[in-house]
Amino acid sequence: MDILSPKIVKEIFKDQREIFLFGKWITLYDIEILLQKHQKSFQIKQLGFSEQLRPIYTLKIGTGKKKILLWSQMHGNESTGTKALFDLFNCFTNDANQVFKTILKECTLLFIPMLNPDGAKAYTRVNANNVDLNRDAVDRVAKESKLLRETLEEFDPQFCFNLHDQRTIFGVEGTKNPATISFLAPSEEVTRALTKGRKETMNVIVAMNGLLQKMIPNFVGRYTDEFYPTATGDNFQKLGYNTILIESGHYPDDYPREISREFTFYAIVQGLYHIAISNDFTAYLPYFDIPNNAKTFFDVIHRYKNSNKNIAFQYQDSIVEGKFVSHLSKVEGENNLNDKIGHSEIVFENEIN
After folding, report:
1. Is 227 left (phi over 0), alpha (psi -120 to 50) or beta?
2. pLDDT of 1 strictly over 90
3. Is the pLDDT of residue 322 over 90?
4. Model confidence over 266-299: pLDDT tens digits?
5. pTM for this entry
6. What architecture (CATH level 2) is domain 6-295?
7. Mean pLDDT confidence for 160-170
8. Rounded Cα gap, residues 326 and 329, in angstroms
9. H helix and E strand count, the chain
10. Per-residue pLDDT for 202 more than 90?
11. Where are the chain's structural domains?
């Protein structure tokens, strides 16, 4: 596999990072302003409307035969992939490197940078009707789910990139590291059989992991491939559309998800480049060398010497009076935390009462 140079992609990211997107609360207003500067390079269309009649956009670029569909923020409060996509858009608009010329020559790319603008505005996982779009692939009761499915069938991609954020609770099994990026080649049915499509999906993930291991070794995990009958990735994979799930997670002291944004960008670029230059997607076994995700972390742990009665806390994010607010909330039912790790830990001398 041809793995990109970490030095080169770091230089590209430094030059092309979209400076007007920062933090975790990214809304339609934020991206609509930015779409204007990409009008000459991309075909930008309004795909349709959300439940609350906010526009949903697509951006299309490239002339190649290999079709790739990428979408982000189907969960409104998961915006790291959206930021990484706009970093990528700058690379294409600014003609950043030969890598991107190769991608556009061999591939046609279609992006939905914000599938759930209502959820993005409210900073919620669900849409305006309380529907989790990632569990609506079968019934498709939500407007947004219908639009995604229609786009999939009309565009008929060879590969899909399904971009999400994962919680700070996940670590890389066998390490004391958080899972900054996690991958998944979704199962097509309950037996988790290794079909041709899954193997091809795994092959692309192997390439992405190859780059990340040179940059953040042992910070990459593999998400559970348990079959979810109503999930988007599982159903798209079952329909024959190879779907790569990227979960952007925590990096030490990176609660705004700016460092994980960077590594999400690297993963996407490597994945697109690998698809562009490859005609053989059969090598998949190194996928299983990626360690599993493990629920090993809390945001903060208070430890008390000579006691097992410790206290765990998680940050809870919300929008209050139009502002992003994050506060610590105690985790109930967790006392003996000897097998858990805090992203921050405080040790107290006296035993808790």
Report:
1. beta
2. no
3. yes
4. 999 999 999 999 999 999 999 999 999 999 999 9
5. 0.97
6. 3-Layer(aba) Sandwich (3.40)
7. 98
8. 10
9. 9, 14
10. yes
11. 6-295, 297-348
Task: Place 333 in a pLDDT band, splitting at 50, 70 and 90.
Answer: confident
CA angle (72, 18, 256) in 5-degree steps: 65
Q: What amino acid is encoded at 149 in this protein?
A: R
First vs last Cα of the chain: how many Å apart? Answer: 58
Radius of gyration of the chain (CA): 20
- Computed from CA positions of residues 261, 263, 267, 268, in that sequence, does the dihedral angle turn out positive or negative? positive
Residue identified by tokens 């010329």 is 101
Cα–Cα distance measured from residue 185 to residue 244, given in angstroms and rounded to the nearest whole number: 6
pLDDT of 87: 98
pLDDT at 83: 98
Q: Tell me which residue has tokens 């952007």.
A: 248
Phi-psi region of 192 (alpha: psi -120 to 50; beta: other; left: phi over 0): left
Provide the b/e sequence for 235-266 (b: ≥16 CB within 10 Å). bbbbeebbbbbbbbbbbeebebbbbbbbbbbb
